[in-house]
Amino acid sequence: MKKILLLSDTHSYIDERILAYAEKADEVWHAGDIGDLAVTEALQKVKPLRAVFGNIDDHEIRKEFPLNNRFICEEVDVLITHIGGYPGRYSPAIREELRANPPKLFICGHSHILKVMPDRKLNLLHMNPGAIGKHGFHKVRTMLRFTVDKGKIDNLEVIEMKR
């Protein structure tokens, strides 16, 4: 079993509260708009990190992290990208890959809106952790944590922080 901390849209912001949650996880996953490599460096000092770059990320971050990150974690096929859309309204950049070879868990960021929902047509779970950074229109900063174990995604928890 692995405990996952899922975050996105840090926009160069990291603080001790985020790092404290990271310390309690086995892995941290970042769905893009990192903003500054200092964010990922701080997270990597605490736990293993899987990340993708987002639309605001510069060439240094794009050299460090891919546009899409697909991997298996505890028998769960995971695909992370930054701009992904939602079930029934996926981004054209990822739509065909999702239809041709859907993962069990599809993660994106970008919207700053926390949303977890099943896609019954593609038989996958979609997650967007919202935004944990301070830049953007969101009123509450959010992250998700959950467990992955033997092909199951469980114990989902929303973490909210004041702006």
UniProtKB/TrEMBL annotation:
<dbReference type="GO" id="GO:0016787">
    <property type="term" value="F:hydrolase activity"/>
</dbReference>
<dbReference type="InterPro" id="IPR029052">
    <property type="entry name" value="Metallo-depent_PP-like"/>
</dbReference>
<dbReference type="Pfam" id="PF12850">
    <property type="entry name" value="Metallophos_2"/>
</dbReference>
<comment type="similarity">
    <text>Belongs to the metallophosphoesterase superfamily. YfcE family.</text>
</comment>
<dbReference type="InterPro" id="IPR024654">
    <property type="entry name" value="Calcineurin-like_PHP_lpxH"/>
</dbReference>
<protein>
    <recommendedName>
        <fullName>Phosphoesterase</fullName>
        <ecNumber>3.1.4.-</ecNumber>
    </recommendedName>
</protein>
<keyword id="KW-0479">Metal-binding</keyword>
<feature type="domain" description="Calcineurin-like phosphoesterase">
    <location>
        <begin position="3"/>
        <end position="150"/>
    </location>
</feature>
<dbReference type="InterPro" id="IPR000979">
    <property type="entry name" value="Phosphodiesterase_MJ0936/Vps29"/>
</dbReference>
<dbReference type="GO" id="GO:0046872">
    <property type="term" value="F:metal ion binding"/>
</dbReference>
